[in-house]
């Protein structure tokens, strides 16, 4: 089959490369000239494990090409995917559908034959109806069919997820569209990936409901973590204890600094807005959004605890900037509000991320960008682990201890063991587990500033 994909970002590029790998001929189209030039020069504009190889091999075999020219991409296409961004609309939190509708109008102008248009972008209920209306209005001569096929891949594991999906959702009542989309995914169906056929509106809602549910699960365990800290329980064991229950499941029960990224925050906001417009308030999701927003700055206060709440003049090393490991995506990363809060409290911030530094430089000002984790922690008063990159798990803790000015580690991803950290002489705190320094009630005065005393407020001095 010949497939065109409009939008060559995280989803469009991964989808294009994987669909080409199934054996179809794919043209990825993007309006960003620099992106297409880079791809045509063999460079991958994003960091996604395995993507470079799969792109290179399919380009070599003549099944995958990149262009800015939509009509070239649409030539003889059996189907065209819309995979453009749907960020939050400025001001009100609704999904901004301008890219989707622009792409629809451009498709209408360039189409030669009736084809199947498939929305892969995450779009609110009813968007497919509007896409169809625009196409019919602009091209009454063509019987174009519109289907919804939401994408569930996770950045960092995108190729695996695309090729081994938990399910493929195909939303359409049009038999031709159903047949075409099914044919695109036939190789996966042969691998027993379940296909769920449903109505277009239902498919659109499935995507939002899935992301909203996962965001709720994360927020729930984060609140349980806060309770664990107060009552002396261990959130990882609570998560395991509940996750072993098949009705609950163990995924998305990792306590941390709050969810971020290119999807969950904007999709939760958009679903709340859709529901409000229908007079169906989503109280649970409203709480999820608020609790999660507040959490990022609360994490900065956690960093301040060993310094009696006073971070002015302190140097804080931040390890990990991207919203999760194995991506360079900085969109709505928890590191952004966390660092802003640290700076508001007067801290000097040094940062390091294995893949996200280039993107971070477009967003984070007044921080010192470091060459590596050891460079980052040198002379720091506190180190905060914000993203659980593999390389941070295996740091030489002795070296970190020696390099730091004051051995305070705030592990927001629970990647270290409290007993081991204590053994290495760190004042260590994490999320929802035992720490070996205690909160100073009401934050003490500057006289009580632990760094002035050469130690931090501790429950028991580290050995
Ligand atoms: N990133 C993820 O992990 C993920 C996962 C599942 C679903 N989604 C959804 O997929 C959609 C795309 O997300 P993304 O992260 O790939 O976005 P992205 O911002 O990385 O990429 C979008 C691309 O579309 C291009 N574009 C915009 N308008 C265009 C037009 N008219 N013609 C040609 N190109 C155009 C942009 O230049 C950009 O390269 C969103 O709706 C998102 O919610 C994303």
Describe this structure in words.
By secondary structure, this protein is an alpha/beta fold. It contains 20 helices and 14 strands. Strands 3-2-1-4-5-6 form a 6-stranded parallel beta sheet, sandwiched between helices. Strands 11-10-9-12-13-14 form a 6-stranded parallel beta sheet. A two-stranded parallel sheet has the order 7-8. Strand 1, helix 1 (10-22) and strand 2 (25-29) form a beta-alpha-beta unit. The radius of gyration is 24 Å and the shape is globular. Bound molecules: nicotinamide-adenine-dinucleotide. The site of nicotinamide-adenine-dinucleotide has 27 residues, from helix 1 and helix 5. Nicotinamide-adenine-dinucleotide binds next to helix 1 and helix 5.
> Which small-molecule ligands are present, each listed once?
nicotinamide-adenine-dinucleotide
Radius of gyration: 24 Å
Intertermini distance: 66 Å
User: Quick check: average pLDDT?
Assistant: 93
Would you spell out the secondary-structure blueprint of this structure?
Blueprint: E1 2-6, H1 10-22, E2 25-29, H2 33-40, H3 51-60, E3 64-67, H4 70-74, E4 79-82, H5 98-110, E5 116-119, H6 127-138, E6 145-148, H7 158-163, E7 168-171, H8 175-184, H9 186-190, E8 195-198, H10 200-231, H11 235-243, H12 264-277, H13 283-304, E9 315-319, H14 335-344, E10 348-352, H15 357-361, E11 368-369, H16 373-377, E12 382-385, H17 390-393, H18 397-403, E13 408-411, H19 418-423, E14 427-429, H20 450-453
Parallel strand pairs: 1-2, 1-4, 2-3, 4-5, 5-6, 7-8, 9-10, 9-12, 10-11, 12-13, 13-14
Helix pairs in contact: 1-3, 5-6, 10-12, 10-13, 12-13, 13-14
The structure holds nicotinamide-adenine-dinucleotide.
